[in-house]
Every structure is written in structure tokens, then in C-alpha cells.
Amino acid sequence: MAQETTGTSGFELVKKLQEWSIYNMNQDTIFCIIDVLDLYTMIPQVEGVLSLKKMLDYLKLKKVGGLKVETIIRLSRFVMQNNYFSYDDEFYHQIRDEAMGSLLTLTMANCYMFFFERQIAKQIKNSGGLYFRYIDDLFIVINWPVRHLVKQIDIWNKYELYYLPFSSIHPLHMKKNIPFTMLLRAISFSSTFQTYLDERDKLRMALLLNKYPNKIIEQKFNIDQPLTVINYDKYRQNILDSPFKEHVGIDYDKLMFIHFTYCLSMRAFPLKFHILWNKYFDEPPIDEVLPVLGIRNVKNLHRQLSYTR
After folding, report:
1. What is the mean pLDDT of residues 151-168?
2. Residue ranges of the domains in the chain?
3. How many Cβ atoms are within 10 Å of 10's Cβ, its own excluded?
4. Which of 300, 224, 291 is nearest to 255 (CA)?
């Protein structure tokens, strides 16, 4: 499956390089080596298991060595969530990312990289170059101008999967709405079912990397009907044909905007505010004014020093 782009030793790379150089090597050829920084420890545990599941689905396997795929996934999840190690006579339980030295971690890292590198490998191959990977080391040999290669590497490095972090101080309902909204966006922008599946996997990874609980992701990804290659086009068209809400002008004589600084201790403030408003301002003319509450973020040191989008 990935024999053309991956290997287990430097001998394979040298052999492929010799074959490629016979017809392609010239004085402008560039040999580039890229290291994936902290590959094992940057893959979340849930995403590692999902990458393994995605690979098994990609290979259309139902069983491996007599074990059902469902059993393999459950066992993999158990291994990922039960890594322990000792340091300085103390025992620790690893609750984040994947464990170094685990054979299962190596398998998951290869599955993860297989799907991540496909576009890069395709781009290099279409340009007549040679692409080869050994776990977290990428080797590229190509006849591009140096400036163009540097630009492409910069583009690959700037591929950021960023959404509002789940650890943000923003209200929970705002963060819960992000997965569903982005899923609808993925459906709208994906003209084929396979493209939608690819976009959904990227979205899932982005949310996991931003610490969204898998339970919330699954809940928001569970739309009103399961999508298949048969019903996808119809469902997508229904979304595209959904009527847009017309923009209604604001009547400032009828609306009063009130902003407050949001923090966890203020979660119940909007409800209490409306209860008090209805209790004390129920007579004309003030009862004709509708209060609208808005929030602003806490101006703490973390917010001042961090880069926000």
C-alpha cells in the first residue's frame, strides 16, 4: 500500500535513490531531509486510535489474525489509556499523548503519517521527484528551485488545525456549537462523499488537538440521518437550499445591549438577570424594551500575552 513512499531501512532509500537518479539527477537536484518534531508525543490518544481505525477501514479489513476490527480498536484504546511508567521511585499514569517505546504507538504513528503525507507525496511525485519516509523522517529529492522548495515546506509547516480551544473561558454553549457548525460547512463545501469523509476526519483531528472531548464531537457529528454515498448528494443539496435568514435591522428604541465580563462564576448571571428584569421592570414604558446580554472576555495576563484570532 505505502511501499513506494515508506521504508524500514536506509538501504531501501539508497536503492530508490539510485533508480531515480539514472534519469532524473542533474546539477540542480535538491536533497532535503525533514524531521517531524515529537511525532509520538504530539498525537492525542484518541486521534491515534482513530487513525488506526481509519487505516483498517481504508484497507477494508473486517478481521486481522482472527480478531474483529471492533475488538482491535477496543484493545488499542485500552493500551493507549493504560500506559504507566516509573521515575525516581514514583509510578505515573500517562493520560495525554502516546507513549514512547510502545510497539502500538509506532503502528499508530505510521497510520497517522500515512494519511497526513499523502498530499505531500502526491505533489512531489507529480513534479517528478522522489519522496520517501522512515517513521518521522521525510526524504525529498527533486529538481525544484531552492526558493520554491523552501516556500512549499513553509506551506506544509503552516498547516494549522486551530479552532477555539475547549479550555477557553468562553461559555460552553459557544464551544459546543463549533463542531456542528463546522460539520455543516464541510458538507456544504464537499462536492463528493469521499471528500466529505476526508474533511470530517481533518475536522475531528482539529477538534481533538484543541482538547474537545470525544463525547461532544460524536454528539455534534451525529446528524439527523447517517450519511452514505447514496444519500449524501440529496442531503447536501437540502443544506444548500436551506433559506437564509434575512438581516433584520436593529431598533435601538426597543433593544438595550448589556455587556458583562464572562467567567465561570458568571455562568448563571444571564438567567438571574432576566428574572430580575422581568420582576422590577414590568411596567410601561420600560417593559417595551428588550434587554440583550453580550459577553466580553476576561482581560487577564494569559489573554494579553497570547495570540488570539
Report:
1. 72
2. 1-159, 172-240, 255-305
3. 12
4. 291
